[in-house]
């Protein structure tokens, strides 16, 4: 059977297989540990190291040699992978000791211990069925979660439970749903640098409503219970505690202030800190914690009339105890060192990579949000580490870091190890896409709306139907200077479309006011920017036939697609809405209340953005797609919208996906989803 792009895209998990990832640098910079599969079609990740002096790569662990059942996952680990959008198998995560001489991972529910120097692999005598395994900094103790309990064991085994509760609604060391899905906190416990204590979250979900996720295709199976904190309802009750690993004595941390969310915890030789956030997200506090007494002192506070944005990698303490964080100041997100902004007002800081002797971070020029580069703050000055003219990310510190650079001119991302004396490439084994993106990026109009336009490589000038292909929501961009980001869009272009991607108000990279343009309204400002580009499209692209315009999207993009054909059916003539939010009251607290407020206090913003209220306006073809096992944007969104449309007498199509979650990892589903969308769009636009 000949390969086609939809088949390749599904088989290679969006061309991500074979790419190196999850880098860890040894303290002396001599070795880098990473994950990579054997080829672009191999979904089993293996563990590797590279010598930064010689550039020689060495495979440390191929899970297939252990003869474990790699598909054997606990329910908790399966949920953890869904939150992290992890579709591969094998070594999908690992944790090292502080010297990066040993590491642990979980395969088939069992702990695997790897000597990163010799390559020796052992399996400690620990019963299977655990998740979130880690090593103490000294490398002598293994920690992990078993059910709702936090456990430790020696390198040989001998499990000890150090925190547990008889109440099934209480867990220790776990990252609750909101933390993992919305705050970027995928863990719930942290080792002390001296390996004598663990800071652990106690999570009580008793007050959260229970939702039930069923598979109608298998009525013989029980539905799964899911504690889902919908907007306006109760969150998990989270507290922080210091646990002695020898005595198991527990010291509660006394965190002051009016807070609802524990955003981050960080513990290094400079101290233990935690960041908390109020329910309305307009205030954060950073606390310095005495692990002996549990006393917490506020050392930094930030407030904002809209919301305080969470930034990956901060807060952090430098080696000398200097606090590093980020805050919106003077219209942009700036790096703050000891409370002082050290980046210019022309730069938007996206994340902090490391904060040791120096601070390494990712940022973009405010005028070109589609390009990101790595910078360092060194001895009071800024130093640019990459000049990618594309999308650059790095891992590590200034002494040794790994760059990943993707541009519009390169077929795949390039990975390079940088030390003070050497640079070495790390091989990417990902496949070359069967489509070749033909894309141009521009800034349109007085507000500089980022737009990407893709055309088929047919060399013709004939008019073509238009396909808008946005995401459009906060925290995600579609207009980026990376060729790989446009593979699926180019495939649609090659089928005979002018594909248009618009990063509207609310998307990242263009400063504080741009991001806050969706406050109290996630619908109209977003749609207005799409409409503005559509009205300008005849001038931007002569091949665009604006009498035939479709729109497709997934998640927030699905919401936007349905919104467009319902509110502006005069301009958008067909829509494909995949896993759409349709009523924001059915989405979670942290994400939704940031933008629309708490509906238990004021539900007006929810009424104004609910698609049910636009059902009677639908005049154009609409295809709704939803995975019935989705525990993030649950299938009720699509089913309730379909009911509202039916009640209004509006024909539409619904494609339910049995056993499919929000990320649709199944190969046959991913392939045929593209084909099904194409058939729908061609049927109504061509």
From TrEMBL:
Molecular-function GO terms, alphabetical: dipeptidyl-peptidase activity; serine-type peptidase activity
InterPro entries: AB_hydrolase_fold (IPR029058), Peptidase_S9_cat (IPR001375), Peptidase_S9B_N (IPR002469), Serine_Prot_S9B/DPPIV (IPR050278)
GO biological process: proteolysis
Domain named Peptidase S9 prolyl oligopeptidase catalytic: residues: 489-685
Domain Dipeptidylpeptidase IV N-terminal: from-to ranges: 128-349
Name the UniProt record assigns to this protein: Unannotated protein
């Amino acid at each position: 059977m000949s390969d086609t792009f939809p088949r390749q895209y599904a088989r290679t998990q969006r061309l991500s297989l074979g790419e190196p990832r999850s880098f860890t640098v040894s303290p002396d910079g001599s070795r880098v540990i990473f994950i990579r599969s054997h080829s672009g079609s191999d979904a089993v990740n293996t563990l590797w190291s590279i010598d930064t002096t010689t550039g020689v790569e060495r495979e440390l662990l191929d899970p297939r040699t252990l003869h474990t059942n790699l598909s054997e996952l606990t329910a908790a680990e399966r949920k953890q992978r869904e939150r992290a959008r992890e579709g591969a198998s094998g070594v999908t995560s690992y944790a090292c000791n502080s010297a990066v001489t040993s590491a642990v991972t979980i395969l088939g529910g069992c702990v695997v211990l790897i000597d990163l120097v010799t390559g020796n692999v052992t399996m400690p005598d620990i019963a299977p069925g655990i998740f979130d395994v880690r090593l103490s900094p000294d490398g002598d103790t293994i920690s992990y979660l078993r059910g709702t309990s936090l456990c430790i064991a020696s390198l040989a085994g001998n499990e000890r439970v150090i925190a547990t509760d008889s109440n099934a609604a209480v867990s220790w060391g776990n990252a609750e749903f909101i933390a993992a899905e919305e705050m970027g906190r995928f863990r719930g416990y942290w080792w002390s640098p001296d390996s004598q204590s663990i800071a652990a979250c106690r999570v009580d979900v008793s007050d959260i409503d229970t939702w039930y996720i069923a598979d109608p295709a298998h009525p013989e199976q029980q539905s799964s219970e899911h504690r889902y904190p919908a907007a306006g309802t109760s969150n998990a009750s989270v507290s922080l505690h210091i646990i002695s690993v020898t005595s198991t004595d527990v010291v509660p941390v006394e965190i002051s202030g009016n807070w609802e969310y524990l955003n981050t915890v960080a513990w290094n030789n400079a101290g233990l800190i935690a960041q908390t956030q109020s329910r309305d997200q307009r205030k954060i506090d950073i606390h310095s914690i005495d692990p002996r007494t549990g006393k917490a002192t506020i050392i930094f506070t930030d407030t904002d009339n809209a919301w305080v944005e969470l930034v990956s990698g901060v807060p952090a303490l430098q080696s000398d105890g200097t606090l590093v964080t980020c805050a919106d100041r003077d219209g942009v997100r700036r790096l703050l060192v000891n409370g002082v902004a050290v980046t210019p007002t022309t730069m938007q800081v996206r994340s902090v990579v490391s904060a040791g002797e120096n601070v390494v971070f990712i940022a973009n020029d405010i005028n070109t949000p589609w390009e990101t580069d790595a910078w360092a703050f060194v001895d009071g000055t800024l130093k640019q580490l990459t000049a990618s003219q594309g999308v650059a990310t790095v891992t590590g510190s200034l002494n040794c870091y790994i760059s990943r650079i993707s541009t519009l001119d390169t077929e795949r991302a390039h990975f390079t190890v940088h030390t003070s004396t050497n640079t070495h490439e790390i091989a990417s084994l990902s496949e070359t896409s069967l489509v070749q993106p033909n894309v141009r990026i521009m800034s349109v109009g007085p507000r500089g709306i980022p737009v990407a336009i893709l055309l088929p490589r047919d060399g013709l000038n004939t008019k073509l139907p238009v396909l808008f292909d946005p995401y459009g929501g906060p925290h995600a961009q579609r207009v980026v200077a990376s060729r790989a980001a446009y593979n699926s869009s180019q495939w649609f272009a090659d089928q005979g479309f002018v594909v248009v991607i618009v990063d509207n108000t609310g998307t990242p990279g263009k400063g504080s006011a741009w991001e806050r343009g969706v406050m109290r309204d996630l619908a109209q400002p977003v749609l207005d920017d799409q409409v503005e580009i559509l009205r300008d499209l005849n001038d931007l692209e002569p091949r665009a036939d604006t009498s035939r315009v479709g729109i497709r999207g997934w998640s927030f993009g699905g919401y936007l697609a349905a919104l467009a054909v319902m509110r502006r059916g005069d301009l958008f003539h067909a829509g494909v809405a995949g896993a759409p939010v349709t009523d924001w009251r059915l989405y979670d607290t942290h994400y939704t209340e940031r933008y629309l407020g708490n509906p238990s206090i004021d539900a007006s913003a929810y009424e104004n953005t609910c698609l049910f209220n636009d059902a009677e306006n639908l005049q154009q073809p609409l295809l709704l797609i939803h995975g019935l096992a989705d525990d993030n944007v649950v299938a009720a969104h699509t089913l309730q919208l379909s009911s509202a449309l039916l009640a209004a007498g509006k024909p539409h199509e619904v494609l339910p996906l049995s056993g499919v979650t929000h990320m649709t990892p199944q190969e046959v589903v991913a392939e045929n989803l593209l084909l099904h969308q194409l058939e729908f769009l061609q049927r109504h636009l061509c």
